[in-house]
Every structure is written in C-alpha cells, then in structure tokens.
Amino acid sequence: MTDDGYVVGYSNTFGKYVIMIDSVPPAIKPVNFTINKNDFTKIAQIEFKVEDDFSKIRSYNGFIDGKWVLFEYNYKDNILLHKFDEQIIEFSTNHKLELIVQDEKNNYSRFTMEFYK
C-alpha cells in the first residue's frame, strides 16, 4: 500500500526486504556499425543489442523515413535486426532511422540516426 508517495507494509516476521521500482528504460546499442559512420552501403542488415535490467522487452518498433519496417528480435542474444531490402527503401540515398523499445513496465527508449544506404 502507498502513503504519500511511500510504500508502507507490515510483516509478522523479521528479515531483510527489498522493494524495487523499474523506472530505467531499456538500453539500445548498435552492434555492427558505429554512430559516427553512417554509410551503410556495405552492410546488408543493421543490428542492435537491447537490454533491460529489471523487466523484459515488451515491444519494439522500427521506422525508416517515417514508415514502419520489420525488425526481428533474437530473445536469446537480445539482438534486434533489420535486413535492408531495396523493395522497402530506396538505395543510394539518405534515410532517417528511428527505433523505439519498450519494457514490461512501460519505460521506453528511442534511438534515431541518419544514414546512407
């Protein structure tokens, strides 16, 4: 139960108790590219490591130039990846990537960058 913003509880036994609150958003880290180098002409897919310390990843959405694109999630390695497809985006031009990752407690992170593909 809460009382003026504090968690209050009563116990009939002694011992150590911990109350944790997940307010930290997931981390999004590039895997196969660096943020400073935005030329993706030589890579077939982009990969991100996504991690959350307390809860699991609930959802993820990727957008290129404002349009939703498919990202695949490898739960075992916590890797999100998008395979570039010329049917989906035009090659030999600049693009804007946005990736939004949300955890089970509704904390979210947003990663944005511009790239050339």
Q: Could you please say which CATH topology applies here?
A: Immunoglobulin-like
The total beta strand count reads 10
Which outline best applies?
Answer: elongated
Oligomer: single chain
In what order do the strands lie side by side in the largest sheet?
Answer: 3-4-8-7
Distance between the termini: 53 Å
Radius of gyration: 19 Å
- Count of domains: 1
Largest sheet: 4 strands, antiparallel
Number of helices: 0
Helix content: under 10%
Could you give me the name of the CATH homologous superfamily? Immunoglobulins
CATH class category label: Mainly Beta
Structural class: mainly beta
Could you walk me through the main structural features you see in this protein, from its secondary elements to its overall organization?
The chain is mainly β. The protein is built from no helices and 10 strands. The protein has one domain (about 25-115): Sandwich (Immunoglobulin-like). The termini are far apart. The mean pLDDT is about 90.
